Structures are given as C-alpha cells and as structure tokens.
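Input chain follows. Return structure tokens only.
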Amino acid sequence: MTGYLLKNCAAVVVDEGNGPTVLRNVDLLTEGPAIKAIGTGLAEGEIPGGTTEIDADGWFVYPGLVNTHHHFFQCFVRNRADLDWTKLSVIEWLDRIYPVFSRLDEDCFYHSSVTAMAELIKHGCTTAFDHQYNFPRHAGKRLIDRQFEAADLFGMRFHAGRGGNSLPKSEGSTIPDEMLETTDEFIDDCARLIDAYHDAKPFSMRQVVVSPCQPVNSYRETFVESVRLARDRGVLLHTHVGEGESPVMEARYGKRTVDYLEEIGFAGPDTFYAHCWELSHDELRRMAASGTGVSHCPEPVYLVGAEVTDIPAMAAFGLRVGLGCDGAASNDNSNLMHCLHSGYMLQCLVSSTREHPVPPPADFLAYATTGGASLLGRNDIGRLAPGMAADLFAIDTRRMDYVGTRHDPLSLIPRVGIGSATDMTMINGRIVWQDGAFAGLDEHKLFADAEQALAGIAM
C-alpha cells in the first residue's frame, strides 16, 4: 500500500477531536487513504516500504476544506455584464438568468463541474457538495451521473445534492416550465442515484443528498416525499432557506420557511440549510435545538447586496455551521479558501451592529473543515489525525506574502487571505494537485473542452 512522508513540515494543523492545535517541525505519514502518523522523527519501522518522501520544509499543512453548498452548472454564467445584480431587480435578474440555465445541455453540466472542481482543488478543497437543481428536459436525467464522472477524473470526494423544482411559474415560482419536474420524477431519480452511487462506508468518495431546491419553488408534497425517502434510505436532506423568501412563504402558507419545514419534518441532525441570512434569533435557536445545520455562503453578499449572515448569533446558539462557495450566479469563483477570508472580514465589518462577538479567525477555518464534515455527516474527514482520511493541502510559506504572518497558522487564511493556489492538494491519500499541475491531466485540454462546450450554447 503506497503512501507519502511529508518530511519536516513547518506547521501541521492537527485535531485529535478536541479542537485544532499546531505542531511545528513535524513529519506527516500517510498510508493508503489514511493518515498513519504525525510527529517528530518518525522511526524507520513506522514507514512502510514504497513510501514516497517529500521535502515539506516551509510548508504549512492544513486539513482539506469541505465545501457544503455550490451550483457547479452556474460556472458557465460568469462575469456577465448583462446579468449584473447591481443593475437589475431580483425579479428582473431571475427572469434573465433562468432562461439561460434552461438552455444548458448534458455536456455543459459535465464541463461546468470539471471547471468548478478544478478551481476548488487548486485552493485546498478536498470534499465538495454540489446542489444540482437544474434539470432542463432536453438535457436528460443523467446530469449528476456526469458530475460523478467529473469527480472521478480528479479523484475528488463528492457529495451530490440531487435538487429539483416542481411548482410551475403560473402558481408563483420563478422556474421556467423547461426546468420543472413532477414530485414523482424527482423522487424516483433521487432513489436511482442513491442506489447507484451512495456509499456510506468510511473514506467514501461518493454520497447522495436529497435536496429539493427551495420550498418557495416546489409543492409541499415534494418536501414531504423527500423526507420520507431520505429517512428510509439513511441519507441527508438539504435545501435553500432564509434568503429572502420567508415573506413570500408567509403570504402563501401563513408561516415562515423554518416553521413550514419543521412542520414537514425537514429538519434535524440529518438536515442542513443553505444561507439563512434573514432568520430571526428565535428561528436560529430552534434550529440549534433540532440539530439542523447551516451552510454559510459569505461571498454572495457582495453581489446580491443581502444583509451579512449573523454568524456570531449562530455560534452563540450552538448551531452547526459549514462554509460554501454558492454558485456563480451570486459568486463568480469557486474558491472556498477565499470564502474563509471573506466570511471573517464581513463579520468584522458589521460587528458593531451585532449582539454577539465575532468568533475568532480560527473558528472560520473550523467552519470550512470540521464544520463542513459535520454538515455532511462525516467523521472521517475535516481533521488531520492518525486514522482520518488523508485529505489535506500544503502552502509553502517561504515567500514574501507570508513575512510576519507565520506565527499563527490557524488565523492565516481567514485573517490574511491566500492569494495563490496551494503547493499541493491531497485527497484520500492521493496527490491530485502539485506544483501547478493536476496529476495525470492536461489542464490546457480541460480548458479547451470546457470552452468548446460553453460556445455551443447560445447565451
């Protein structure tokens, strides 16, 4: 069984389950998919034959980041002046963006997933959850199958959120008919994907999450049946909550979104919501009590102009919190590492308006690692310790960028920010990115293929 010895790491962020600490000038040994040992002067007898030694002098080694909310397909709708949030109302923007989404074909979903995963990996993300809710009729039902294919290409740990929308625009949703599915279509395909791909074993590379897009764009039965299927199959639940829709839900159903979902049973330790920026403290407390988690996506605040999510309150109430990039419709990059920096700095910006203090920078690193692992129901990722998955990334800090910063590896990414790609990213004990290249892949060809797929769609 092959492995790697990262020799003389300048710092390793370790966590034996009691919170992160920093070990200085240590070695890190992997064997197969797992971490075998972390320490100084590992004895020769501890190092299996066939282990590849890597000089890690100057390296800060971190647990791989866990992305808990994204929309990969939106990578094909980036940097578009005609879709600028600042020049359109939300309704105008939705009317323009959804018809574009509805024109994507199967190849677009594959190549946009390749695009997103490539950027995530370059910036230290080793596990990605994608909320794929766009199923244009002409594109067929095998869109998430193609996403698993993209993940296999890179060797990425992938959790697929099978989303969908069932409420017609004529009944109040924002979804074009071309993108609608019936509840039965949606549930049947969720079941198919669970049977085909879901693996609950340790070090699993493939899992499926039942993820109806959002209550405001689906019939109630879609959420009821989602709960039934997920609990029957032992998989997680996910949806969008608290991103401006609660007044609509209140007008339509006489209750806000959190109340609506709690009544259905779409809440609990097996459930996590995306966004939640408009929720009241009472709603947050109830979510904490039920064990429902939150995927916080900080960067859409810049484009959407929404209020800054109250992370201090979530932390004070004990909510499980992870981080997500969100899709390119509201964040034009797939750089989760950048979200750590944005997330912390945005909280500092509005700290004087908050009832609770901003969590320390190191907590934002935890949101993107152990927090994300918790949301995805994983106890084998998110930490660097013997027996955990060998998911990690390394930054060579022997550069001018890091002068004066190296005394505090835990705060480096959230407080200072990292402006370049990692020097190495490892997933499940395999190096997938090192020295500016993907292992066994030609990035120029990946780029050309993705651009060709994009060019084939009339935007």
